[in-house]
TrEMBL record:
Pfam families: Retrotran_gag_2
Name recorded for this polypeptide: Uncharacterized protein
Organism for this UniProt entry: Fistulina hepatica ATCC 64428
Length: 121
């Protein structure tokens, strides 16, 4: 969105100007850019997400709703992955060095999801 010059519609820093006789072109440009931003946003979202935000009037408010929804889902996912890791135990009959090697790989993989497991854990 930065490359298309539309990010200000996502972060809400460019608001719809109050229409006067002097700035009708600015209002028209803002509305055109808002429509472009809305279109680009909905093209890249799953239909279920688009239906959730369809009645929200501005791109900035839509973006905020999406960020809130996905941030919550991400936090829940991270908590679940962390708990699953912490609950793991060496299976009976498996060599401890093999288990620890698998555990280290899993820990490194979790890091890519934003789940940090320290040695103290």
């Amino acid at each position: 969105m930065h490359g298309k010059g539309l990010w200000t519609h996502f972060d809400g820093s460019e608001l719809l100007p109050v229409e006067t006789d002097d700035n009708k072109d600015a209002v028209t440009k803002w509305k055109t850019d808002e429509a472009k931003a809305r279109s680009l946003l909905t093209q890249r979202l799953p239909n279920v997400t688009v239906s959730k935000i369809a009645k929200i009037d501005t791109v900035a408010k839509r973006w905020k709703a999406i960020m809130t929804d996905f941030s919550l889902k991400n936090e829940l996912l991270q908590a679940g992955l962390r708990q699953e890791f912490m609950d793991s135990r060496c299976p009976r009959g498996e060599f401890i060095d093999v288990y620890l090697s698998k555990l280290l790989k899993k820990r490194n993989n979790l890091h890519s999801y934003g789940v940090n497991i320290t040695d103290d854990d």
